[in-house]
Specification:
The protein is an alpha/beta fold. The chain is built from ten helices and six strands, in the order ααβαβαβαβαβαβααα. It is globular and about 60 Å long. It starts with a helix and ends with a helix. Bound molecules: nicotinamide-adenine-dinucleotide.
Length: 272
């Protein structure tokens, strides 16, 4: 590369760094604006939630419905889907349910065309479905590893297919939905489903690029990249990070307690 070309690249990089200062200030100012002024409306929009038959997915369905959205839930569990539909209808919302195994690419395409015909174009897609093995890497059978990738990663490719879409990535710590039943956390409190669902919905409505929960965990991401690897590992162990999964049992009950879900509905009616 010629010297002049290198110089231009360096100058452009420096300019990009300077604009980052501007964007940081912009974010700071925006964060001072109350959330109620920053949320976009989803009234009448179609919101498709994968894994809407349980946990966070169900709560997202209820919260989006409380804001006037038409809900579509895709879940491998027909029973879970039906319960979500019942709760959404009971709260005065609209809900369409489809039993879909997200590992099955053709079933996803089929459900997508049914939704288009029966409900309309999807405005917001919440890729929420997920599974966890809870086993160490060496104890995980091949089938479980493959299934985890199929549900948690590959399904995103079958479900998406548009360009120019605004995306929100959500990175939560452990949540007490039952998925990670048995985990122990010494320092960071295990998150409440209601809090996570509210933050996810707000993140989507405010067009946030990334939602890290709890938000102070951003510091850990920074530390991971600046500490030497051995130092980071020591810190992780000192905080008990390596022990959190040792009593993992996974989901024992099939769902959130009904009383918990009713409380959430009540909250939704209040914020709506
Ligand atoms: N619970 C936690 O501690 C935690 C932490 C970090 C991330 N997450 C992620 O948050 C999301 C929601 O988790 P949750 O705690 O509500 O779990 P959950 O088990 O309550 O809900 C997951 C839903 O996904 C559905 N699902 C699973 N496999 C599917 C498939 N093949 N096709 C269609 N649906 C399928 C399940 O039936 C279930 O209704 C998941 O993606 C999970 O990985 C959870």
């Amino acid at each position: 590369m010629a010297f002049s070309e290198t110089l231009i690249t360096v100058l452009l990089a420096l300019f990009a760094l300077l604009t980052s200062v501007y964007y940081a200030l912009e974010s700071l100012v925006i964060s001072l604006v109350p959330r109620k002024f920053r949320r976009k409306s989803v009234e009448g929009q179609v919101v498709l939630v994968t894994g809407g038959g349980s946990g966070i997915g169900r709560l997202i369905c209820l919260k989006m419905a409380a804001r006037g959205a038409k809900i579509v839930t895709w879940d491998v569990s027909t029973q879970g889907n039906e319960e979500t539909k019942r709760l959404v209808l009971e709260a005065g919302g609209k809900c369409h349910v489809y039993t879909v195994d997200l590992c099955d690419r053709l079933a996803v395409y089929d459900a997508a065309s049914k939704v288009k015909k029966e409900v309309g174009k999807v405005d917001i897609l919440v890729n929420n479905a997920g599974i966890v093995t809870g086993k160490t890497f060496k104890d995980s059978p091949d089938e479980l590893i493959k299934k985890t990738f199929d549900v948690n990663i590959m399904s995103h490719f079958w479900v998406e297919g548009y360009t120019g879409v605004k995306t929100t990535v959500v990175c939560p710590y452990y949540i007490s939905t039952g998925m990670f039943e048995g985990v122990q956390s010494k320092l960071i409190p295990i998150l409440k489903p209601e809090f996570v669902a509210s933050e996810v919905v707000d993140g989507i409505l405010m067009n946030c690029t990334i939602v890290i929960l709890p938000s102070f965990c951003r510091i850990l991401i920074l530390l991971k990249h600046i500490l030497p690897a051995k130092g980071g590992w020591r810190l992780y162990k000192a905080c008990g990070g390596h022990l959190t999964m040792q009593d993992f049992r996974g989901r024992l009950k099939n769902d959130l307690k009904e009383s918990e879900t009713k409380d959430n509905l009540l909250n939704d009616r209040i914020i709506a």
